[in-house]
Amino acid sequence: MQISAAVVKEVGAPFTLTDIDLQEPAPDEVVVQIAGAGICHTDIAVQHGHMPFPLPGVLGHEGSGTVVGIGADVTALAVGDQVAISFNSCAACPQCAKGQPAYCHGFLEYNFSGGRADGSSGLVSAGTKLGGNFFGQSSLATHALAHERNVVKLPSGTPVELAGPLGCGIQTGAGAVMNSLDVEPGSTVVVAGAGAVGLSAVMAAVVRDAASIIAVDLHESRRALATELGATHAIDPKEGPLSEQIKEIHPGGADYAIDTTAVTLVVEQLIASLGMRGLLGMIGVPADPQTVFSAGVFQMPLLGLTIRGIVEGDADPKTFIPYLLDLHSQGKFPFDKLITTMPLAQINEAVEAQHRGEVLKAVLTP
Ligand SMILES: [Zn+2]
Ligand SMILES: [Zn+2]
Question: Which ligand is nearest to the CA of 91?
């Protein structure tokens, strides 16, 4: 079928809305008519060549919408179902078997190869194969091919056009708090970077009844929103070393810290801000994959510290997204406050607005 998609022609090129051909769904695939698709850091990283993906291609990995076609082997979904689309995984490797699909041994192949296992992509423009199947979806388009495996049926009453970011950025921040670090009530949590991922972590820490939630961000507007969402303190890192500012609030140090910035100095300052048996969760993805940080060989055992790298909030989207939506319906996880909807035709303006910090999470609607 003929669809419209935001094609990136080459590294560094803008998104160009283009009429392309979406092929018939493979046996395990569904066609989703996109109601909304978020823009996430990884889309922009690929656009600028920081992560590998075959171009020209279609990005987008926070899609949601309505199932309008199903492949021959799909049994758990039907035409008309409202769904969010998350990352894809193989279902068969040891990590998938343990319920940890974010660490799927085939993660790169299933999300970044640009096509299906047989080499086809499902997206064709003027006779040329496009990079598709990005995170098992390529949803910056009017329609996307996704898989039974990475599609999550939404409960009735869900604002379907807003649900896409639950599939990546929002589950990443919330899952870091709820799954990876398993934050305990009454604890102190520091969140560095109050973008969509960091603010999702703040909201999750509120759900977990953390006593102190300290948000760190350079932008005043983001610190204000963090406070509105339940952060008890908001720190400007320009006002002095983070660890000193945090220890002024909590002389014993923090129980948990979450880094979404991938900035070496911030990571090291977060380690220095931890108290006894403190845990650091590392979520941020640096532009340079060789980026490193230091931690004290003496300090680590002395304080009993743990450092955890985290992908997608250790979430199994099939269960975690419905859980977050249930919290949202109770008014306990107001993720819609992070989202600004804009038309798909304004995708380049949306990327700019997000980059300038004017928009936290742009969701593009048809
Ligand atoms: Zn993402
Ligand atoms: Zn797997």
Answer: 2
